[in-house]
Amino acid sequence: MFVTDEFNTTNYLFVSLALNDRNILFTTPHILCVLTDRGLLTPQYVDAVLTYYIETKQWDRQYVDQLRNTYLTE
């Protein structure tokens, strides 16, 4: 597993291209959602964090919403 904090940067593209198996690359939003799914973080906290980073770091709203739908909704 390879974890990167290069989400939404040019470096993220280079990291993903360098890996033979892209299924081992996890973004920060994905990690946050998985930690919620495993009961380590509350959904409300992660939802607020994701919103913050969408608004301040221009994270891809469509990608984050897809993760929200998968991990934060029942």
Summarize the structure.
This protein is mostly helical.
Give keywords:
61% helix; mainly alpha; two-stranded parallel sheet; globular; single chain; 74 residues
Structure description:
With about 70 residues, this protein is mainly alpha-helical. The chain has one domain. It is built from four helices and two strands. It is globular. The mean pLDDT is about 80.
Oligomer: single chain
Order of helices and strands: EHEHHH
Note the gap between the termini: 27 Å
Strand ordering within the main sheet = 1-2
Please give the structural blueprint.
Elements lengths: L1 E2 L6 H9 L6 E2 L1 H10 L5 H15 L3 H11 L3
Parallel strand pairs: 1-2
